[in-house]
Amino acid sequence: xxxxxxxxxxxxxxxxxxxxxxxxxxxxxxxxxxxxxxxxxxxxxxxxxxxxxxxxxxxxxxxxxxxxxxxxxxxxxxxxxxxxxxxxxxxxxxxxxxxxxxxxxxxxxxxxxxxxxxxxxxxxxxxxxxxxxxxxxxxxxxxxxxxxxxxxxxxxxxxxxxxxxxxxxxxxxxxxxxxxxxxxxxxxxxxxxxxxxxxxxxxxxxxxxxxxxxxxxxxxxxxxxxxxxxxxxxxxxxxxxxxxxxxxxxxxxxxxxxxxxxxxxxxxxxxxxxxxxxxxxxxxxxxxxxxxxxxxxxxxxxxxxxxxxxxxxxxxxxxxxxxxxxxxxxxxxxxxxxxxxxxxxxxxxxxxxxxxxxxxxxxxxxxxxxxxxxxxxxxxxxxxxxxxxxxxxxxxxxxxxxxxxxxxxxxxxxxxxxxxxxxxxxxxxxxxxxxxxxxxxxxxxxxxxxxxxxxxxxxxxxxxxxxxxxxxxxxxxxxxxxxxxxxxxxxxxxxxxxxxxxxxxxxxxx
Length: 510
Hints:
InterPro entries: MmgE/PrpD_sf, MmgE/PrpD_sf_1, MmgE/PrpD_sf_2, MmgE_PrpD, MmgE_PrpD_C, MmgE_PrpD_N. This protein is α+β, with helices and mostly antiparallel strands. It has 3 domains: 2-284, 2-methylcitrate dehydratase PrpD (Orthogonal Bundle); 294-433, CATH 3.30.1330.120; 453-486, no CATH class. The protein contains 20 helices and 7 strands. It has helices spanning 21-30, 37-56, 61-71, 96-108, 128-138, 142-162, 176-188, 192-204, 220-240, 256-260, 297-309, 328-334, 350-353, 357-367, 378-381, 384-390, 399-406, 448-459, 465-475, 483-486; strands at 2-6, 74-79, 268-272, 319-326, 393-397, 417-423, 428-433. A 4-stranded mixed beta sheet has the order 5-4-6-7. A two-stranded antiparallel sheet has the order 1-3. Helix 11 runs parallel beside helix 14. The longest helix has 21 residues, at 142-162. The protein is globular.
């Protein structure tokens, strides 16, 4: 890897285009290096993973609304939208930016797909919908899509390793716009000069505050990465048409670093593959076994274990207090350090409860399972014994767990912590967990069979059996797919599907 130094340049300082981060990223995207077999296999896993969680969310209101917006924009050749039968009557393919938007919302709605955490947060699987939509619209094959996806993941991971957005309350999708634009550039075989312009526009249009993940969290949480993917597609379109972008976008005196991040004295080093070096970033990422914020994954596993070993903990009458000692990120984002009263509110939205580790720990402790819908149901959140237990749980930052969270050594990097439970009879139970069971270094690392099982479990209540088998057979042949076959890399609710039909979208402007 090359380490690219990054700082702010005053307007009078020379900074040739070829030394800017956007250009360096564009060069990585344009490098025709082969995709390694291990990376290809993981891309297949994540395509299956995305389809699983998108399928489970097809009837949820944000997804229904986004799908309706896409359906108002039919296009030939166009791209497919999750749930819509591409072989049916009427409009079956849609403008790629809108298809990517609808599919991005479906993938993100349940907070249940892959993650990478370093200097910042990310869900790198959010790169897949925009890259796939453009591949379908432009008639690219499976091998081209795989190359584009490898770039999208690589750039996302490299930016997340180097640049903290959340420290300045900037939403993490500001890394997604550039990575998706780069991935599309690879897919289409664009010149670095064109990709460079697209990256600048994609970054400029996708910087927003983190209020979408604060307080009473709204449905926009699912829309934010989908919007970034849509903006990336539009940025590529404009760049192909010869339009230019703010430059230098990261390093400029009035650019992203100077005013939104660490300011004029900032210094970063961004790791990027050298020319001819394989793009392996996806292998640093990990998926979710549970539908919850990634920093809650390990806590669900530990709570399930403790509830089984000590069933008395499920009764709040036996518990005096539960203290979760964890990393800075976990404490301040999904813990009591966020100072969000909504994180203890039984009437809070699903999106808010998803970002409340006290709630998640209480329910997993009592139930011994975690379900993407049932564990968030209003009647579940409002159960009196759960509320009583939940309100006895607080978090605190532990310096060692913060250090391990930020460690660059994969063997010690951790997303868990220590729990200290004080019982009313005077006993004390202490336990800890470093990573989720499904993590590559966890008790049960996810492999292909687990991705397939996750897809089947989430898809069986929604899709016909034949549709489930058709999709899996296609996905597992991903790098061999022709352009025509890649157009079928979607899921459809058709006659015979358990849910019957998709709900109609509410009427909007379109």
